[in-house]
Amino acid sequence: MLERAERIVHGASRWVLDRVDPQWVDYVASNTMTDINRRLNRFIWTYDLQAQVVRVVDEAPGVKTFELRPNQLWRGMTPGQHVEVLLPVDGPDAQPLRRHYSATALPRGRFSITVKRLPEGRGSAWMHEHLRPGSLLRLNAAQGSFVHRDQSRVLYLCAGSGITPCHSMVDSLLACPAGERPDLQVIAQFRHSGDVIFKDALRRWARAGIKVDTALSGTPEAGHAPRLDADQLKLLCPDIRQRDIYLCGPDGFMTQAMAHLQALGVDLTRVHTERFTVPDTVARPAAGFSVEGTEVVFKHLNRRITLTAADQNKTLLQAGRDHGLDLEAGCCQGMCGTCKLTVHEGEVSGNTLGRAVYLCTAYPASRTVVLGG
């Protein structure tokens, strides 16, 4: 009886949010907030940003896509951005486990996240085992700078679940009028053919005229390129040096891909990166380097700071904020990319990927460091 009542309430909530402007729903809910209403419908009468699971899709072995309907507090997203979900892994009264997942925008204000179950991943295991249609999930607003920036020629280079933000961007760009659509190419690597995610989308993109290639890092199979290296990348994308590249995947793949791109002479300032796992290595300051007197230039803010002895062992994010700069950050673990900038001059230690630097887990390592967008 209780489950049936909850299904009715959840269905009614989706009906309202699909048809009524969320700002009106927010206005009504906030002005009629009572303990009774909150008990009757904790999805709409709430101060928390939440999403309701609408559908669960098995994409590949160990990979599920969760279609979500956020409540009226959701303010939308830009394709390529990610959301932070708060998972009650240790119970509703314990501190939630926070995980970041790239989101794919869907019609009617919905979005989806694709989650690969990791062998030791508490968060991914909990989601695979507990989330089903009707489940509620707390989250935070969409964030991240891994978004299309009006480039005319783009290569999406991804591996595994790293295809998720690329999927969102490609779909949004395909919706553009043909004459305004950039020249797109997709190269996606998976371990085996059975691990390929978004097979229908890959075929749809190819039919729309996008050059799509899949590569396998495991045993070679017909119809797929072998494991990606510099030669394979050049073969699959002869004009790779003329393209902006969006790179996303596991840490090891991204490190190797960056080395291949560098070997091909790609301008690394045109490589845009997104991580979805915490880096394997712990970021540490450069051994024996004194930061006193080091100048750090933030070109995008038109600001310059001079570090003092008090800034020793501070990350670039901490030092910048302590000197009065308004620097954006998200997870502060070197994963989400909110604080990511490009090193234009000088050296840094810690969490870097090519010339990309994650300020929250990186440190100055030369007398002058010039950073920018």
UniProtKB/TrEMBL annotation:
Its cofactor is FAD. Gene3D superfamilies: 3.10.20.30, Nucleotide-binding domain of ferredoxin-NADP reductase (FNR) module, Translation factors. Residues 46-149 form the FAD-binding FR-type domain. One of its GO terms (molecular function) is 2 iron, 2 sulfur cluster binding. Pfam families: FAD_binding_6, Fer2, NAD_binding_1. Residues 294-373 form the 2Fe-2S ferredoxin-type domain. Keywords: 2Fe-2S, FAD, Flavoprotein, Iron, Iron-sulfur, Metal-binding, Oxidoreductase. In the N-terminal section; belongs to the FAD-binding oxidoreductase type 6 family. This is Iron-sulfur cluster-binding domain-containing protein.
